[in-house]
Amino acid sequence: MNRDTSPFRPASTGASPTPKHASLTASTNLRYSLTRKSIYDRHLNRTKTSELSKSAFAFLFGEMVQHAQKKVYGVQDLEKKLNQHGYAVGQRFLELLLWREGRTAKRETRILGILQFISHSLYRAIFQKPADTLEKVRENEDEYMISDNDPLVNSYISVPKEMSQLNCAAFIAGIIEAVLDGHCFPAKVTAHTAPSDMWPGRTVFLIKFEPEVLEREGLRHGST
Amino acid sequence: MSSTSRARLGEEVWKTRTDKINAELVTLTYGSVVAQLCKDLDGDYAEVNKQLDKMGYNIGLRLIEDFLAKSNMQQKCANFRDTADVISKVGFKMFLNITPTIANWSSDSKQFSLMFDENPLADFVELPDDGKAQAELWYSNMLCGVIRGALEMVQMQVDAHFVNDVLRGHDTTEMRISLVRYIDDEMPADDE
Amino acid sequence: MVVFSFFIFDRHCECIYLRQWLDATTPSPAQPLSRPVTASSAATNTTSAVEKPPAGNKLSMAEQAKLVFGVIFSLRNMVKKLCGPDDSFLCYRTGQYKLHYYETITSLRFVMLTDIRTENLKSSLHQIYVNLYVEYVVKNPLSPVEHPGGEGVNNEMFELGIDSFVRTIP
């Protein structure tokens, strides 16, 4: 286990003369087990390929939805809550993903680049499959769509008629939003049900970038 | 059913009858739930524990059906020792791909501990350094609720709580489970 | 094979789902109702106009459910008293119909009424539990954990599933 690869350690360790563990013990009052390894001793890749049951996730996600439902006013509010949960997950996944890419990690500077990163690398890492399509919204310069024919989080959800606007994939929208934010592409991401004949649960993530993103894209890369 | 055949059943269900997904998605989602509760409840960790247990209880009421459907168990356990064995070798295996060790049986066979060498919910986790989380928060408390809810559905009232957690700096993660009573069949309401 | 009706009772002895395709009390050949009837809250809505027993001796669905539960509950208890807690009854038949029974360890009771030529349906009822009830009701986060008055069982996916399943029963 190589401690130096941990992203939790401060970046500037090189010149510091302090002993290796000093910074950790001096700044914290947390207790650590003397016989057990702490999270800093475990390799971050340990769980890269580990799996849990889809049901375990479904139950956890379901209870998250139920719990969120208790304190909201209407469908929009509920989707916002789910988005926030997704956001928290997305931030951390991004960190893990980039760290794992190691030296090959590249900073995306173009809109298309970051969207491809999301629909391929990110999607594959989380859901073991790429997103199904990535498109530009023709009428609106600042909007893009990523579609998923069968979002994992909706596997067991049968939306009652009185809530027909609800799409719990707002959770995934939150993940996407966090990753865009993390790359300095601030945007609003929303999930919409867009069934096709083959895929009744098909969901489109509508990505609307903030104006400064388009402005930057224009300056850097020319808008023509 | 013997203990080894239960281990085999757990293994088989996990390998052949379980759809699987990325473990980190579960870990991070659970983290988000706990973090949100800590925020909503303003660091009242005792209340967070309670909420986690409640959410787990609701999950347990549902999860037991999936457990029975997948494991194809059609008969109740003969005694509480069997129940413990099934929880560890089939239940935890099926959902979290771990097999906590059963230990510390009380002499009347009504209490035991589950010792977690691995806890996928707590990967990546360090409790907040606020001087009280390590003394008050049971991060994985949802698991207690799950067991309580699931066993209630098969007519066992139990008490489940953590007594040790490596996240608190203890050397083990240990959950204590005690059988309170077996629940009788409910009777239909009398006709008017 | 002809399926007349289907019931699910929960551990609180409440009918949480019932569905009728054909009326078992109609002398053969049974007449199909104009459309399948679902009553999710049959047990509590005994006074609603739709479920008033039609003229004659016919019972409303809610009353049927109550009777059916009474019968299976007594039968099941009798069987357990006679042969021990691990035994359970599978079906009984009359001159007109056959009642099939399956109970889970969680005290969910699945009951199906069919014509008398139908083979034992225990495994079919088990399949309904595993493939439809668990997948579409239990795992559906928008459906409540328990179903007082049948709330949440009769969602679209479950209904469709039941329909097509009943058609495939040999």
3D structure, described in words:
The complex is a heterotrimer of chains A (224), B (192) and C (170). Chain A is of the alpha+beta class and 224 residues long. Chain A is built from 6 helices and 5 strands. In chain A, a hairpin with a 6-residue loop joins β2 and β3. Chain B has 192 residues and is an alpha+beta fold. Chain B has one domain (3-182): Muramoyl-pentapeptide Carboxypeptidase, domain 2 (2-Layer Sandwich), CATH 3.30.1380. Helix content of chain B is 48%, strand content 15%. Chain B has a 4-stranded antiparallel beta sheet with strand order 2-3-5-4. In chain B, β2 and β3 form a beta hairpin. In chain B, α1 runs parallel beside α4. Chain B is globular and about 50 Å long. Chain C has one domain (3-168): 2-Layer Sandwich (Beta-Lactamase), CATH 3.30.450.70. Chain C has 3 helices and 6 strands, in the order βββαβββαα. A 6-stranded antiparallel beta sheet of chain C has the order 3-2-1-6-5-4, with helices on both faces. The model of chain C is unreliable at 27-36 and 39-56 (pLDDT under 50). The interface between A and B is large, with 43 and 45 residues. β1 of chain A pairs antiparallel with β1 of chain B, so a sheet runs across the interface. Chain A: It is found in: Endoplasmic reticulum; Golgi apparatus, cis-Golgi network. Chain A: This is Trafficking protein particle complex subunit. Chain A: Part of the multisubunit TRAPP (transport protein particle) complex. Chain A: Residues 1-23 are annotated as: Disordered. Chain A: It comes from Orbilia brochopaga.
Which labels suit this protein?
heterotrimer; A: 224 residues; alpha+beta; Muramoyl-pentapeptide Carboxypeptidase, domain 2; 2 domains; four-stranded antiparallel β-sheet; 41% helix; globular; disordered N terminus; B: 192 residues
Q: What is this entry, summarized?
A:
The complex is a heterotrimer of chains A (224), B (192) and C (170). Helix content of chain A is 41%, strand content 12%.
Strand-residue proportion of chain B: 15-25%
Kindly state the percentage of residues in helix of chain A: 40-55%
The biggest sheet of chain A, with number of strands, parallel, antiparallel or mixed sense and barrel status, is: 4 strands, antiparallel
Shape of chain A: globular
Name of the CATH architecture of the largest domain in chain A: 2-Layer Sandwich
Say how many strands of chain B there are: 5
**How many domains comprise the coordinates of chain B?**
1
